[in-house]
Each structure stands twice: as C-alpha cells, then as structure tokens.
Amino acid sequence: MTTADGAKFWTKYYSAGVPAEVDLSGYRSVADLFEQSVQQYAERSAYVCMGKKLSYADTDALSRKFAAYLQSVGIKKGTRVAIMMPNCLQYPIAIFGVLRMGGIVVNVNPMYTPRELEHQLKDSGAEAIVILENFAHTLQAVIAHTGVKQVVVASLGDLMGLLKGWIVNLVVRKVKKMVPAWDLPGHVPFNDAIARGAAASFTKPELSLDDVAFLQYTGGTTGVSKGATLTHGNIVANTLQCDAWFQPALGKLDGQANMVVALPLYHIFALTVCGMVGMRLGAMCVLIVNPRDIGQFIKDMSKQHISMLPAVNTLFNALMNHPDFKKMDWSHLKVSMGGGMAVQAPVAERWYQLTGCSIVEGYGLSETSPVVTANLIDSTKFTGTIGLPLPSTEIAILDDDGKALPIGSSGEIGIRGPQVMRGYWNRPDETARSMTADGFFKTGDVGIMDERGYTKIVDRKKDMILVSGFNVYPNEVEEVIAGCPGVSEVAAIGVPDEHSGEAVKVFVVRKDPSLTEADIKKFAEQGLTGYKKPRHIEFRDDLPKTNVGKILRRALRNEELEKQPKTP
Questions:
Q1: Cα–Cα–Cα angle for 7, 12, 18, nearest 5°?
Q2: In sequence order, what DSSP letters do the residues of 252-291 get, joined into one string?
Q3: 189 shares a domain with 90
Q4: Is the pLDDT of residue 6 over 60?
Q5: Which of 6, 63, 177, 342 has the most beta carbons within 10 angstroms of its beta carbon?
Q6: Under a CB-based contact definition with an 8 Å cutoff, are residues 77 and 186 in contact?
Q7: Neighbouring residues of 162: CB distance < 8 A, sequence distance ≥ 6
Q8: Same structural domain for residues 513 and 418?
C-alpha cells in the first residue's frame, strides 16, 4: 500500500536515522556479509555456550575448515545440507561453512519424529546432514529411505577443549542419559570433519544474491510441510533491514552488544534476528541449549551484561515468573524484540516495569526471511500492533481478488520487498497461489492498517494453530490422529492457552467405544513432535460439516470461544 505517487507514506514515522530503503549492492552473498564481520570484529567473542567462547576469528577459521571438508567429500554448490541441532557452538560453524561453499542449508527441528524428519529430508533432496548425537537415533530410523549420503555427528562437548568437552559429554551421555543408542555406519564425528577440512583446500565459489541459501520449512494449508526458498539476497536484505531498524537503540550501547539466543536457530526468527543480525553487529551471542530450563537459562544470562533479548511472549512470561529473574541486572538491556506470536499487553507492561526496556513487537513469516514489520525500537509504549513496514518493504491490505483496499479496511496482509522468498521449493502451484500478479505475498493473516502505516492483525485466514511461535497445521495433526485404531473422524483446532498462546485440541468421533484419551495421546507421540501433540481431546458423536461433507473447523472454534470467560 503506497500513496498515489508510489511513496511509502509510513517512512515519515520512522525513528530518526532509519533509512526508507536499504542498499544491497555492496554484497553478493551471506558469505560476503559474514566475511566482512569476521574481519572487522576478529578479536571479539562471537559465541558463548556453557561457558566456552569462540571469537569471530575462531568462527571464521572453523567454518572455512568445515566448508573445505564438505567440498572434499563431493558436496557441491547448490547441494542441500540439513542441520539438526539445538543452539550449540557447532550450529553457526555448520551454517556459515555450508553457505561459504555454496551449499543450501536445510534447518531441521531436532525434536522431529522419524516421520517428520523423513519427509523433510526427502522433500528437500538433502544429501548431507549435520546432527547432534542426542538425535542420531531418529535419523537412524529413516536414513535408508532418504538421499542422505554424508553424515556428520556432533556431540555437545565438541569445541569445548579436551577436559571440559570430556566432562560435558560424560554428563550428557552417562549421567543425564540424554543420548539414546544409535548406529549410523560411515558417519564422521564433527571434530574429525574439522580436522579433515584443515588438511584440505577450500575453493571459494562464485555466489550471487539470486543463489539459494536456505530451505526454511513451514507448514501449509494442505498440511504438507514445504520449503520456503530463501536466497542469499533475501537473507542479506532482511539482515540489513533489521540492522537499520535497531540502530537508534544500539547507538546507546557502551561497547559490544551481548545478545541472548534462546530461540532455536532452526527457527527463522532466531536464524535471522540472532544468527545473522548478531553477526552483522559484531555482537556476542549467548547460546542457550535448553531454554525450557528457566533457572539455568537465567544463570547463563547473569554471567553477561545482556543488551539484546529476542523472544516470544511465552518466554518473556516464563522468565518473569521465575524467582531468580529479579536477581538479574537489566540495566544494559537496550532491545527486547518480540515475535513468533502475538505479544500480550499485560506481559509487555510487566516486562517494561521490571526491566525498563519495552518489548518491541514485530511480525514476519518463514516466507519473508522473516521480519516484515516492527514497532519503533526506541518506543516505550506498547501499541498492540505489529508496527510499521521495515525499510524497502511494502504492506498492502488485500481483498479476496488480491486488490489493495483503502486505509482502515480489513483484509489479507500482502507483503512485497527484497526479503520475500523466491517461492516454495518444487511447488510452483503453491507458489502461484501465494502471490498476487503484482508481486505481493499473501500471508493468510487478516489485518487493518491505520493512516500512519501501523498494522493490527485481527484474524487468520488460514486454519493454522500457533503454539509458542511455532506453526501447527490442523491437517497434519488430523492425518496422524486419523491413523489411530478406533478413530472414525477427527478435527483439530487451536484453543487459547495461557502458557503457549494456543494449544492443539482435537475432536474425535470413535468407531471403537473403548478408545480413551490416553490411547490417542500415546499414538500421537509416534507421529507428532511435542508442540504439535493434542493437549485437549474431546469425544463427539458427530462433527459439524458442510453440505459436501467438509468438517467445519470454524464452527468448532466458535464453540470454544463461546466457552471462554467474557471480559467486562
């Protein structure tokens, strides 16, 4: 949505110093962006995890060795390489190693079930994978059905030095028993891959902004997880857009920024806002392996002067509800970025009271690298909106025919800008359905834009369920539950949940009257990762349907809303 002369009218409401456009001309790839940062900030600490630090120079050297290793085993430019790890020191090494040799990174949630992992590996055509040993048993179950030929297995103690590394691995394997037995013949340990890369030569490939950098998998209205094809240009653009947006707050920093990376790097929010923007800023990224352990999380943070904390609403809330939160020194905190799900006003207000730093809510999707809009970084007021479009970004409110509606109208949010994906991997039909003729990506979210350019999300066009910032698609849940013996029909919806924003609820029509909730939950464990599993199960004699027999999820959602306590 622009004015008649094509100007983006909202730019006049930007914070001082934020440009209307970003210039990508100085870079040919994410690798260029990375190499500039590691040279500029060589002596700075880049990452810290469990007390072990890597400098920017270390990250440069290790990722180059990993890139050389991949080339030495026949991985070529354009080959898809999966990464299946939590936030640990190996993650940035693997990502930048793959990107520097021209490979395409396929981020994988390490909590995936074998079924989910198999789909993603086959769909992406991944030929190699870097995986933490804790999850190797999942890969073992499906690797024979995939095209994966090269397996690099990391352990948590890698890169932590001989003694500390040995202790960490001992605790993880023997004390906490977090590594189920696995067998992957021909795999290469991560440290061996680095050693082999050190002995091999690295040939820097020719890369352009049009080359693909990531396949970022997201759900779909069909229930089939599909890869958003993100180019080097998409990622460079969104990194520069976020960098420009953050500057008014970061200009107040005294020294190096310390950024908490609690959100998983396989999720697009953390990948760009933490992984890429952190690198661009020369920040030290504090990698949190297990953010669910809030006590340990706070302990890890307390060792640093934290200046940047990107998080989802549920994480901000969990932190504040922990008794150790008030022991933290928040005086250095300059940016609290909320995304992935709606930030609730009571959470935002309490966070500001306790830390003195406002949560700046933003909005984005896997398909947009992800950040599209954000509230002003130096704002102290919670707006309840998703903010203004970032530099070089256009937002339009669209009718059902994809035509722009006037200011104040309700319609589907459309996005156009350099961060918008090329399309869905090998799914031209899905790509065509998601784009307008004039190049706007149709989000499926319904919003209203005001006269200043601030947009408020009012509904979702799609049936997607949002659990702690993660997309859950009803069709996928229904498909799995429908396979449970004794189930006749099933419908899945999202219901409000104070901890995760929404939780999955399924309505089941039984064909076996002895079928229980416990039976369904046990069955779901085999096919659905944790956040996708139904939290609530209700048995029905029948389900509401259209005259052609399509189950009416909206009717079920409306029933649930009616049950919710009414606000005065």
A1: 105
A2: T-SS--EEEE-S-TTSHHHIIIIIIHHHHHTPEEEE-S-T
A3: yes
A4: no
A5: 63
A6: no
A7: none
A8: no
Domain encompassing residue 482: 465-563
Indicate the helix (H) or strand (E) that contains 224: none
CATH number at residue 477: 3.30.300.30
CA 212/CA 102 separation, integer angstroms: 9
In angstroms, the CA 181 to CA 139 distance is 12
Q: Is the domain of 253 the same as that of 175?
A: no
Q: Is residue 215 one of the residues assigned to a domain?
A: no
| pLDDT value at residue 547 | 62
Q: What is the pTM of this model?
A: 0.89
pLDDT value of residue 7: 66
Pairwise CA distance, residues 311 & 47, whole Å: 18
Q: Do 537 and 505 contact (CB within 8 A), yes or no? A: yes
Distance of CA 466 to the CA centre of its chain: 13
Mapping DSSP to helix (H, G, I), strand (E, B) and coil, where does residue 1 land? coil
DSSP conformation class of 306: -
Torsion of CA 523, 528, 531, 535, to 10 degrees: -20
Backbone angles phi, psi at 228, to 5 degrees: -75, 125
Tokens of 57: 């120079």
In a domain, 350, yes or no: yes
**Both tokens of residue 397?**
């409110």
Task: Tell me which of 462, 497, 529 is where a domain ends.
Answer: 462
In a domain, 13, yes or no: no
3-state secondary structure 6-57: CCCHHHHHCCCCCCCCCCCCCCCCHHHHHHHHHHHCCCCEEEEECCEEEEHH
Q: Which amino acid is at 447?
A: G
Evaluate whether 441 touches 434 at the Cβ level (below 8 Å): yes
Per the structure block, which two tokens stand in for 486?
């004794």
Choosing from 462, 491, 521, the residue where a domain stops is 462
Q: What is the pLDDT of residues 432-470, one digit of tens each?
A: 999 999 999 999 998 999 999 999 988 777 788 989 989
- Paired with 412 in beta bridges are 398, 446
| Spatial CA neighbour of 314 closest among 473, 504, 472, 498 | 498
Q: How confident is the model at residue 535 (pLDDT cuts 50, 70, 90)?
A: very high
Domains held by the chain: number: 3
Query: What is the tally of helices (H) and strands (E) in the chain?
Result: 17, 26
Dump pLDDT digits (tens) for 420-438: 999 999 999 999 999 999 9
Grouping H, G, I as helix, E, B as strand and the rest as coil, residue 349 is: helix
Return the HEC string of 485-507. CCEEEEEEEEEEECCCEEEEEEE
CA distance 464 to 421: 20
Q: What is the pLDDT of residues 119-157, one digit of tens each?
A: 999 999 999 999 999 999 999 999 999 999 999 999 999
Confidence class for position 253, pLDDT limits 50, 70, 90: confident
Domain presence at residue 266: yes
Match 């520097």 to its residue by tokens: 100
